[in-house]
Amino acid sequence: MHYSSSIVIRFRHNTVTYSRHLFAVSSIHSENFPRSLSILFHIVAFVPLAGFVLYHGLYGSLWLSSALLIASTMVLLSLRQELPHRDSLPYRQGFVLAVSVGIVYACHVVGLRGLIYVFPMAPVFFFTFSLTHAVIAGSVFSIASLVAALNIEEPVLVIRFAIGIAICMVFAYIFAFVVNKQKEELERQANIDELTGAMNRRRLKPLLEDSIEMHRRHKVPASLILVDLDYFKAVNDLHGHLRGDQLLIEFTQLIQARLRHTDKVFRFGGEEFLILLPGIGQAEADTVAESLRQLIQDTTFGAGIQLTCSLGVAQYQAGQSLDHWLQSSSSVPAR
């Protein structure tokens, strides 16, 4: 469905920021990485790095010591960001890249003694980057380390390491792929109503909070439409609950097909549905609500059933709480 050009243009102006919240791709590198494990991750990276910095500063290459010192500093900066519960993913990715560069240079300077650290480092990319980026970054890192080691090591030895590193990368990819698929399925089951395929109330709160935040920061409007199917209990009594369930499925598919892909449909109660319209003000939301009311009234569902519905519409107003906004949608009829 297409809404007025003024609304669409205003919404597109904030597409990048808004879509980051609504359509974030599930991945093993999520910002919600357990904090205790993330701190342990930093400590395990920093302790050996600090030891190598001291060793090479005293007995080895000052250049290598300096490179590892930079990597150690990046680890500490990332840890500092992690401790106050901030979003440390960009810092975590930065220190992984810095440590990788340090290992590549170590392979150039000390050969075999640097190559052995490619094995534990290569899988780390899958915990800090998306799957595609992890494959690319991990492959570049591994190839660079192997080429750097040729500076002092025999090609035959480097080839043997290359085979081992390739096997390690393949298994890391398989593990990350399986974990991602399992995570996506768990999130789907947790956020989607099993019967209708609409989003459930668990997913409602964070998306409404995102809309409120977008309004606070960028004045992007958002509206809610509450749809309550009239006399649905009578449908169940007359046609049975199985037919009633099928009717709810058909109804959900009908309104989802009419709305934009950015609009979100939630099953709010038994026969109550809530629609979130990002970037849409009150007048436009009233128009959408009326078109949905007419669509539902004109549709003949399975078994020849026809439905009517009651609708409430509410645009988010500055300063409103989430609960107040929801309550407004149930008390303001579509005009």
What are the defining features of this structure?
Alpha-Beta Plaits; about 325 residues; 15 helices; alpha+beta; 4 strands; about 10% strand
Residue share in helix: 55-70%
* Number of separate strands: 4
Given as residue ranges, the uncertain stretches (5+ residues, pLDDT < 50) are: 4-27
Mean pLDDT level: 86
Strand order of the largest sheet: 2-3-1-4
Computed over alpha carbons, the radius of gyration is 27 Å
Structural class per helix/strand content? alpha+beta
Mind summarizing the main beta sheet?
4 strands, antiparallel
Please indicate the count of domains. 2
Give the strand content: 5-15%
Terminal Cα span: 20 Å
Q: Any idea what the shape is?
A: elongated
What order do the SSEs take from the amino end to the carboxyl end, as H and E?
Answer: HHHHHHHHHHHEHHEEHEH
Q: Output the number of helix runs.
A: 15
Question: Could you give a short description of this structure?
Answer:
The chain is α+β, with helices and mostly antiparallel strands. Helix content is 66%, strand content 8%.
Can you walk through the features of this model?
This protein is 66% helix and 8% strand. With 335 residues, the chain is of the alpha+beta class. It folds into two domains: 31-191; 201-331, Reverse transcriptase/Diguanylate cyclase domain (Alpha-Beta Plaits, 2-Layer Sandwich), CATH 3.30.70.270. Strands 2-3-1-4 form a four-stranded antiparallel beta sheet, sandwiched between helices. Helix 5 packs parallel to helix 9. Mean pLDDT is 86; it is low at 4-27.
